[in-house]
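Per reviewer request, we include the raw input and output of the structure prediction for the construct analysed in the revised manuscript.
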Amino acid sequence: MDSIHVTNYELNIGLGLRLALVTDLHSMPYDDLLMLLQKEGPDAILLSGDTLERHEEGESEWDFLSMEQWQFLPEMKSQMVSLMRVLDRLVEHKGIEAEEEEDLGLAFLRDISKLAPVFMSVGNHEWYFTAEDERFFVDRNITVLDNADVQVTIKGKKLRIGGLSTRYDLDWLEEYARKEGTKILLCHHPEHYKYKIKDRKTDTFDLVLSGHYHGGQWRIGNVGVYVPRIGLMVPKVKGKFGKHIISAGVSNTTRFPRLGNPRELVMINI
């Protein structure tokens, strides 16, 4: 597996905090990522979706087709959606979770909770959390932000952190947008920011953090040649676009290697 690239961003927010952004672990091996986090020493770790794999049909009311209704896929041409489903099934990586006795997503959360406060939003692979998951989050002081926000004090600095889930709640989003102070939004889907927040009255956040695109499995510049479950030749799949940062993610979930697209840990000074 390729090594993880550390990308550093500087924002003039004035809090003097160093944040780690981790996206799209998908319950996959994380030893090299943990070593980097230990080395970087963040003041807080922000997880912007798809840390865990919780999408077994029958375990909740959701299935893949109903989840797509929340991801703007119906706005694409039906032929393209059908083509991408076929391609995704062909290249999807199978069997890693089944081969492991331990849920690697929970193991990762356990290990990073020893390093810094952890704030976790909900992505499209997290249809539900089990009762065991919920107890785990409480026991390790992991803050899950499922269309919710929290005010925190880190190293004496106050800020708010909120998480907009795949199944977004626009009423909560509007309420959060009206709150005062420094605000960070964990927003797994870049499309949610583009279509529901940007240049609207809810666009009051100091920083918006996304993933989901995996940087484009194959990338030229910041254009994803092939982006799993999204499409072909997708622009702006990774990088900093004003206050919106899109991470390339920390795992490879297909049978194909990443090309021009290393896995990424994002470090942000605010």
